[in-house]
Every structure is written in structure tokens, then in C-alpha cells.
Amino acid sequence: MKKLKDIIDRNAFGVCSYLGEKMGVASARVRLYFIYISFVTLGSPILLYLFAAFWLNVKEYIREQQSIFR
Known about the structure:
Elements: H1 2-11, H2 15-23, H3 27-40, H4 44-69
Helix pairs in contact: 2-3
């Protein structure tokens, strides 16, 4: 079960894990809130989730580039 959770975390861009870590909440709780809010608002948080995933990937890319040139 732990292995499946790790695979899902990596494939989901780590957005929920990142948000949970910053807010001090379990990532599973953040995922549930995303699901509940998506049902209530007919999917609009999915756009926020995709934007956050994109931003985290860009941020990671910038950090990698900076570490190469140091």
C-alpha cells in the first residue's frame, strides 16, 4: 500500500504533498479537500491544481539550473 501511495504522489506532481507540508496538514487530507471542492464547484479547482503543478515544476527546474551554475 505504501508503494502505491508513493507512486501516486510522484505522478500527481506532488502538489498535495507540497501544500500539506506548507500548511502542516496531511497530504491525504488536502487531496480529499480537492476532491470535495471539485464536486461542489464542478471541477474549477482542477485548473488551480494544474497551475500549481506547472508552477512547482518550473520552480524545480529553476533550482536545478541554479545548482548547475554554482
